[in-house]
Structure formats: C-alpha cells, structure tokens
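Lab notebook, bench 4. We co-purified these components, and the gel suggests they stay together. Before we commit to crystallization screens, I want a quick structural picture of the whole thing.
Request: model the full complex, all chains together.
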Amino acid sequence: MAVVETFVKPLTVNPLKTSAPLGGASAFMGLDGCLPMLHAAQGCTAFALVLLVRHYREAIPFQTTAMSEVTTILGGKDNLEEAILNIAKRAEPKVIGVCSNGLIEARGEDIRGDLKLIQQKHPELANIALVYASTPDYKGGFQEGWAVAVTSVVDTLVEPSLARDAHQVNILAGSHLTPADLEDIRETVEAFGLDPIILPDIAGSLDGHVADNWVLTTQGGTKVEDIRRMGRSVATLALGLQMETAAKLIESRCGVPVEMFPRTTGLLAWDDFIATLARLSGKPVPQAIRRRRSQLLDAILDGHFYFGKKKIAIAAEPDLLLGLTQFLSDMGAQITAAVSTSDSPALKLVPAERVVVGDLRDLEEMAAGADLLISHSHGARIAERLGISFFRAGFPLFDRLGAAHKLSVGYRGARDLIFEIGNLFIADRDHHHHSQGGRDAAVASG
Amino acid sequence: MLQHKLQDLFEEPACAKNRAKDDKARKKGCGGKPLTPGNAAGGCAFDGAKIVLQPITDAAHIVHGPIACEGNSWDSRHALSSGPMLYRTGFTTDLGELDVIYGGEKKLFKAIKELVTKYDPPAVFVYQTCVTAMIGDDIETVCRVASERFGKPIIPVNAPGFVGKKNLGTKLAGEVLLNHVIGTEEPEVTTPTDINLIGEYNVSGDLWTVTPLFKRLGIRLLTSITGDARYHEVTKAHRARVNMMVCSQALINVARKMEERWGIPYFEGSFYGVKDTGTSLRTIAHMLVERGAEPSLIDRTETLIAEEEARVGSELADILPDLKGKKVLLYTGGVKSWSMISALHYAGMVVIGSSTRKATKEDKARAAELMGEEGETIDNLPQRDMYAKLKNREADIMLSGGRTQFVALKAKTPWLDSNQERHSAYAGYDGTITLLKEIHKELTNPVWDLVRKPAPWEV
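Here is the predicted assembly.
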C-alpha cells in the first residue's frame, strides 16, 4: 500500500501528463467509422493529432470545431453544428465523437443539449451517432479523458436489455492497453468459444495495416451495432480500474455483472483472467494457453536472477503504473521511485512506499541510484542524464518503432517483458564488468 | 491591447498578401480564409509563436495554461542547439479546475519565481493560452512585476491559440522580439559584415550547413532569429548591416520594422538548392559592400560559389543519372513551394505538382513559373485525392510533412520528410547533397518492389 502524495505545485517541469481531450479522442479512435473531433481551437487538434501520428505512425482522422476568440464569446453551438454537417457530408462517418476542452467547459456550454438540437434539426444526421465526452483539459489527463469517452459511448449507445446471449462478453479496455494487447485478448477470449465485444477496439483501427482504399474516418474498431447490444452480454470484463465507471453503467442499465481486472500483466493477474473465462464459458483451459503459462513460468525462473533487488524508477499513468510495478515487484525488483499523472484508486495499490502525482522532474529527482528508468519517450533524456538504462512504456512513444505492437498482457506479454527488461539488466552488468574489470578481466576472459 | 496589435499586423505594408488586398479586405486580417469547422487542419497562433521563440536556446519558455498546450507538444520540434538545452525543458503552470475558477495569475507568478530561482535563465518567455486569456489572466502585468522583482527580462507572449492560425502567431512573436528583445543591448564590437538571418530556426541543423560558408567569407552572423540563438545575441541584432529573411514572409514585420527603426536593409532569399544558395550569398555580399564592406567580398563570394558548385557536382555525379526524369509531388507550402523545386530541378527531376498552401501570391507565381508545363500549383489536395494520385503512380516520390506521410506509404509510394519534423539538414550546398542523396536512397530502396508484389494466393 503506497502513500499517495498530491502536492499542487505552481510550476510543472517536463510534463508527464498529456491532456484529457487527447485521451478521449484516442478512445474514440477505437470505434469503427468514427471521426473524433475536439470542440476547441484548431491548435488543440493539431497538437493531439501530431502526437498520435508520431506514436502510431498512422494517419489520424481528427477534426476540430475551430473555435476562435469571437465564437468563444458568442458560444460554440454554431461551430459545432457547422463542423458536424461538414463532417457528415465529407467523411460519411457512423459516429462522431466530440470531446470538449477547457475553453468550452469553462464557459459552461450545454454540449449535450446542443447535440440533441442539432440532430433533431437535421434529418440527414439520423444515422450518425453523436457521442459527447466532457474532457476539460484542466481536469485529469489522458487516462481520465479515455475513461470519460468510454463511459459516454456506453451511456449514449448501449440499449437496455434483459435478454442474455450466453456466449457474448464485454471487454472494456483501458488506455494502458495497446493494439497488440487487444489482439491477444481477443484471441484468448475466442479460444474459450466466447464472442467478445471489445470497447474501444484500437486493435481494429490502429494496429498498423495497409488497407486497399483511403477513408476519412477510422477504418476498423468497435461497430456501433455491437455496442448497442452490449447489454445482452453475460459479463463485462473491465480491464483497468479506469473502466469501472463504464462497466457499472452497463450493469445498472442492463444487469450485466462486472468482473474487474485492475491488472492484466504478470502471472497471477492473467491466471485470474483465464480462470474467469473458463468459468464464464464452462470450458476447460485450452492446451495452447496452458503451454504459454508454462513458458512464462520458465521465463520467470530464467529471468529472476537479473531482477532481484533491482531499483526501479517509473513514471506512468495510474493503471499502467500499477500493472508494471506489480509485475516488476513480483520478479523481485524494488520500486524506489513512482510518479503518476493524477490521483486514482490504482495508486494506493502500487507496491512502493509512496507514489507522487507529478512530472518528469520529480522522477528525475527521485531516480538517483536507480538501475532502470521507465516512462514514455520524454524520459529518454532523463535516463541519458542519469546514465541509467531506459525502458519505454506508455504514451507517447515517438522515438522507436512498433508502439502499437508492444505486448504486456497475457502469459506471452509477461514472458516477453521479462526478456526485454532482463536483457537491459544483462547489458548493464556486462558493461559494468568491462568498465570495472579493465585489462585483467579482458585477459582473464581472453 | 491584443486587438490593437492584431490590427497593426493586418496593416503590415511590406506583406505581399496585404499589398494585394483592398482596404476592406485588409481590415479583415491575415491568416487567409476563416477556418471551416469540421474541415480544418494546422496549428494555432500559440504554436506559431512558440516555433519562432523557442529556438532561443538559453531562455526558459513557460506556458500558462492547462496541460494540453505544453503537455501535448513539448520538445517536439527539431530546432537544434550547439550549447544550452534549457529551451527543451517543458515548463507549464498546468492549470487545474480551481485555478480556472479563481484565476491563475498568482500561480503564474510563483511558477516564474521557482523557475528563475532554480534555473536562472537570461530571460523567460511567458505564453498566454486560450483558457487563461478567457478567464482574464493579465500576463503582461504579471511579467512586468516579475521582471522588476527578479531583475531580468520576463517577457509576455500574448498569442493565445484562438486568435488565429500559426502564421499569425509567428508574426505576433515577431512583435514580441521587436518590443522586448531586439535593441535592448549593444554589441561590444560591430563589423562591416554583420548580418542576421530572420526566420531560420536551425531545423535539423539547417543553419549549420550555411554558417561555415559565412565563416569562409568573413561574414559575421550576429544572430539567427532565432535558430540556435542565445538571448543576449538577439538583443543586439539591431546592429547588423543586412538582414536576410529566410522563411518567406513569416517574419516580414520583423524585417521591415528593423529597417524602419535601425535602417537595416533586408532581402528575401532561400538556402534550398545550389542555385538559390548562390543567389543568396551573392545578394548578401553585394548588400554588405553597398553598406561599407570590403569590395573584394564580391569576388571571394564568386570564387566560393564556383568551388562549392563544382564540389556538389562531383559528389552527386554517381546518383544524378538515377534521379533524372523521376517525378516528384511536392506537398509542403510556403516558401518551400518554390525553393525546393530548383533544388530538384538541379538533379533533372520533374516536379508534377507543388502545394502552395501558406504561400504568398509571389511564392505561387514563382512555383508556377519554375514548373512550367510539367506541373501545377495545388492549393489544397484532399487526402483521398492525394492517395488516388499516388496509387496511380503519377509520382515516383512525394516530399511532404509527417501528417501526409502515411497517405504516401499506404499507397506504397516512396516518401521523404521535407518539414520541420525531419532529421536531416537540407540547406546550403551540403544540405542539397544530403537532400538528393536521401531521395536517391528512398527511390532505390528494394522494399518498393517487395510491398507492391501481391501475395502468392492473390495472383
């Protein structure tokens, strides 16, 4: 149990946090035929878009209501209406996901009401789902924005239902999961003969594939008609504590029971997940999954030598932080510095003495003496300054290939993490030996 | 205050776009057509202001606003530094809900205090954003008080995103330099060959491909505005003999007002391509001689140009035959809509189209003239059309910014980054060699045959 420190500082240095509207719009990227839009000045969209493009190395179809100083004073409804009509005509989306920002929310605009009026006024919008996520950028960060957007999708689209489809399960995916994670999760769930509806499914849209045509919306992701029937599922598996609100909303509306999975990285966390699938499906655990568990056990045995008592300094959003720190702690490492973006129930569960809600300067100050630094790409320069190894995790990852295909869930994800991080420790040790041992060591080994 | 400033900018007499307008149109302001909600792209005024000022490498840049403005964008540009790294540190007040309710001025003051105490920079630039502008935070007053208290320049940059596009922000940042920085200190010595480059941000080291040429000619770069600049250099920029405006008209207000206030003549030039680099060097030499530099500078410049051109020719001899006749789609805009064309023509490449977004009428005319019948100027090419064009193999390679990169790649078409996110310097003679070698490397990479081959079961 960690003590969570949330001092409000006047000066943030080297931000760890990205904005809530960016998180919200990213969640909307996991819907099929969707055009995420920020109800804000155009620069907000440009920054968000560029960062996502750099992370995923994909085109990102974001739009903006292009608010100006004048329209801010007069109110944003006209811009919102014009933007939606333009998008409907040009891009033929199935969903438009609207994220607000600080400018709009501080004015106290009734966007939900505006959207209702706009839809009533224009019959041509009848077949387009309009979803609104309230994401002022002065509240929370990427993870909170993502969670709000998913809750809004559920609230707007999931239809009340008492009927049950015995094979259908809901998977609510938090912002800490990658397309590769969701691909693995889908395969695992299907291996039990279950039919998953994953929301939002960025594996469908952002897994980096080459399509045969160009569309102006997302291509792939959760289908609107599938979201509507989520109320018929036998259970909602909520991955990440951030998904609890959305899961409970489905439960209260349709009576679908919630299974919470605060973590999906590491042996015990995945055992829970697999056991739940076995129970829900009434089927035995498939041989291939048992084999992978066995591979993970072997990796733990081979790898633990390099993790024992290693000091880790890590900065990440709450759910990612919890997953990675518990995994590392299970391997024998010690979390000596933990920094996160905003307060969350996940932080208390982090296996460290304290978790600081702060920035990358906090991490840099706390990381003295650590063996490994973990954060998103902006941490690379800190690791360089401190002269310690660096492992990239979270968003954004703009200075390496393959951000979408980093796997951390499942037996396979944990196995690969042990190899990747373990290899950093081994490289460190070898480097250390060379510089310490000098000539004698070289002679001895030669 | 801001409105007043905006009006002043809209009336900028040297701006080519302004000159072409009637009185009524001029009043409406610059930045082109108003943005279309639901069909707009591009950065805001804050973004533009930061592009201009942030390359001052030893200054601190603090963004007063919620996390989005700095958290989503910090340290993302490749304006390089040869020394100080403070400009790459992201500083923001990261406003929370309570700050928005009660106002953020006190928080900003405390943030500046902490910054000055811990980092002791020569100057601090404080950026206004939309939310803080709307709640009425008076950053000008906070900066004035802080300057007095801490005894160093704390400079307000009043260019919140919602006042306009990136282009307007660059001009507002130019005003900041004119009103708070340039002319506030005197250089210890001046020479008859002192020049400034205006609008050169040292993206990927562009500046460093040009400075050795100046050095060989004995020309002293007083400062670049603002690539790899130090604060206390920019303050002394008003003692240059000649200003060269490198990035089109983005900082035209700075060039013109420096002429008005300090009598520094300026010209607009480019360092992209062999021909334009030569022209720019010649122009600098002639203008400096007119203002009292050794007349021999002109001959020395000719000698250098001849040597360099010969060197470029021999270094590229091996690859030029492969490049000859290859078709290029150029999707950049602004000054690059024409300046890159001549660099490509040097290699015998055919430019089939050049985007003239963010370009002046003159830029557009130049681009059209250079391409002749071979290509067309493009105001706007929707991504779907761009994809179709590339998929039909109308171009062998596209040069553009990161945002349209994936249109080319998904159409299985060679692509090269020509915007600010790129990692190579393309300016000057060395830059031209780099650019053409990069294009060659991309065009001759075997992956294009690989990815275009259908899977065996699809034949």
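The longest strand of chain B covers residues 194-200. Worth comparing against the SEC data before the next meeting. Chain B touches chain A through 72 residues (CB under 8 Å).
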